[in-house]
Amino acid sequence: MKKSKRFLIVFVFMAAVLLLSACGSQVSGAGNTEGTITISGAFALYPIMVRWGEEYQAIYPNVRIDISAGGAGKGMADALSGAVDIGMVSREIHPEEIDLGAYGIAVTKDAVFLTINENNPVLDDLRQKGITREILVGIFISGEITTWGQVVGRPEVTDPIHVFTRSDACGAADTWAAYLGGKQEDLLGIGVYGDPGVLDAVIKDPSGIGYNNLNYAYDFESGLPVTGARVVSLDANANGLADPDEIYDTKALAISAVSTGKYPAPPARELYVVTNGQPTGLTAAFIEWILNDGQQYINETGYIALPADRLAEEVQKLK
């Protein structure tokens, strides 16, 4: 009888040790439920990151998540300097940044779209024809195309093209330039700060042209282009027509084009969170939640989910 009691006590003790050990193994990962996470960077990721932050804090009320936008360049710099726990970057991580300690994890996908004013002088032509990459190179890179008549082959239209680009180091400009065969510093135009700033400049100028991330080009409630703006078709096959799968009159059509691969990549691209070295503790726990439970908010916030195998690759980076 005494042996049975001793055996029971030893069994209970060992079970408790195992339980405590299991809990302890989560301290640097998914078990962290309090503390503060600071995040800054890409405007492209900001809307979904705000949603992720709200949902995570609802589950773990002792966690505080501070999020600010400011461009992918700021996000990368802040992460590498240790000014924030997580940087938001709307482009691939450059090799030199990896050498400096940047640890990037892809969390979702979206794209950059061409935006013009709703009163553009050749709007009807653009809706029928779209714009080829060659024409866009002439507008944004070489500067050889300066009037809207040149864009659509109507020399009698002499309205000048007013080009707007990003003044801040950002993934949207980096991605748009990559589509045109250049880098952000190669883009011509009047520099405007931030995604909302470029769109506002275009809305105020009938001759304006710019580029915006998906969730800034379209109104969140209606799913239509933001009032005052239009999203232009990219004539990817250069056949002189805006084919049905090249028309992005609604956010739903834009998302479909990106998710099915009909929209060119770039300017479609993955969005990343970046840390200085492999993430640990609460930061790792939050990123792991984003890659798992957080994916349920992707579609409703206007982003495109990564394929399951791609997500699995990113989860492995946290191990």
Key features of this structure:
39% helix, D-Maltodextrin-Binding Protein, domain 2, 13 helices, 2 domains, disordered N terminus, 9-stranded mixed beta sheet, single chain
Can you describe what's shown?
It is a single chain. The chain is α/β, with parallel strands linked by helices and 319 residues long.
CATH topology of the largest domain: D-Maltodextrin-Binding Protein, domain 2
Quaternary form: single chain
> Roughly how many Å apart are the termini?
46 Å
Query: How many helices does DSSP assign?
Result: 13
Q: How much β-strand is present in the residues?
A: 15-25%
Number of DSSP strands? 9
Radius of gyration, whole Å: 24 Å
CATH class of the largest domain: Alpha Beta
Q: At CATH's second level, what is the architecture of the largest domain?
A: 3-Layer(aba) Sandwich
What series of H and E elements makes up the topology?
HEHEHEHEHHHEHEHEHEHEHH
Helix content: 25-40%
Poorly predicted regions: 1-30
Q: What is the domain tally? A: 2
Mean pLDDT score, rounded? 91
Biggest beta sheet attributes: 9 strands, mixed
Give the overall shape, derived from the CA principal axes: elongated
At the fourth level of CATH, the homologous superfamily of the largest domain is Periplasmic binding protein-like II
